[in-house]
Amino acid sequence: MPAMAAYAAIHWIFDTSSQLEGYGFPFDCPHMLFYQRLKVVHDLVNLIADSHCYNIRNKPFLKLWKPLTSVMEDQQLKKAARQIEEKVKVFNKLRKALSIAVSKSKKGLNDDGKEADIKTIEEKVITFRQTIVTDETLSQQDDYKKMIRQIDKYWLKLFADPIKVNTPKGPVSIQPQRTNNILERFFRDLKRSHRKKSGYIYL
Fold first, then answer.
1. Is the pTM of this model over 0.85?
2. Domain housing 192
3. Residue 167's beta-bridge partner residues?
4. Would you give per-residue pLDDT tens digits along the chain (203 residues)?
5. Could you tell me if 120 and 32 are in contact, meaning their C-beta atoms sit under 8 angstroms apart?
6. Is residue 126 in a domain?
7. CA distance readout (Å), 103 to 77, 93, 97, 111, 129
8. Does residue 125 fall inside a structural domain?
9. C-alpha dihedral over 38, 44, 47, 51, to 10 degrees?
10. Does residue 72 lie within any of the structural domains?
């Protein structure tokens, strides 16, 4: 059983894809998730090593302690992981405010974004922006300053009014796309079709 447990733990560490949502970076963070899983197994190994369960039978499982501890005690890696985890929390708040690539939608890159009123979205982004600029810590960091500048730069495009178009069936209002998701989906379909016909991976 200890050998089976060690094998299962190693397999679980590498099986990050089962927890990802198919959006790709930056919505999915496989490397951060990999690090978090390493930490979970390391804590479990420490728990076993410190308990009455420690004996020769657990040797296969406890062999994981040395390589895992080497990773967990890397101070540079620990600092980077802490910074990324902090930024992911902030990014997810912005993602939620913008209603883009909604978490747990199970649509992956084919997600068009949550259908929400554009004015409601704008109000949520205003609240998000205010939270960042009034935070004594975040507002002083260059990364967040750049993010605010980007939001301000594209504000009018993000929250543009619908465009009225005259058609044979009468006037129609078209909401400008806030992302290039439609165009990206078109090229993915084109590449997929090309691969099926030619067998080549790239165009």
1. no
2. 163-197
3. 170
4. 778 888 898 999 999 888 887 777 777 888 999 999 999 999 988 887 776 555 656 777 778 888 999 999 999 999 999 999 999 999 989 888 888 776 666 665 565 555 667 788 889 999 999 999 999 999 999 999 999 999 999 888 888 777 788 889 888 877 666 666 666 667 777 777 777 777 776 55
5. no
6. no
7. 27, 11, 12, 10, 21
8. no
9. -140
10. yes
Same domain? 23 vs 81: yes
Residue 77 token pair: 């890696």
Positive or negative, the CA dihedral 192, 195, 198, 203 is positive
Helix H or strand E segment including 164: strand 163-167
Query: Phi, psi at residue 158, to the nearest 5°?
Result: -65, -35
Residue 151 has which token pair? Answer: 């939001």
Same domain? For 14 and 93 the reply is: yes
Q: Which two tokens stand for residue 60?
A: 């296969």
Q: Which two tokens stand for residue 195?
A: 């691969």
Question: Cα–Cα distance between 160 and 154 in angstroms, integer?
Answer: 10
Tokens encoding 87:
């930024």
- Cα dihedral 112/116/122/126 (nearest 10): -100
What's the total number of domains in the chain? 2
Q: Find where tokens 């009468």 sit.
A: 170
70: closest CA among 29, 47, 32, 38? 38
Residue of 179, 160, 164 whose CA lies nearest to 122: 160
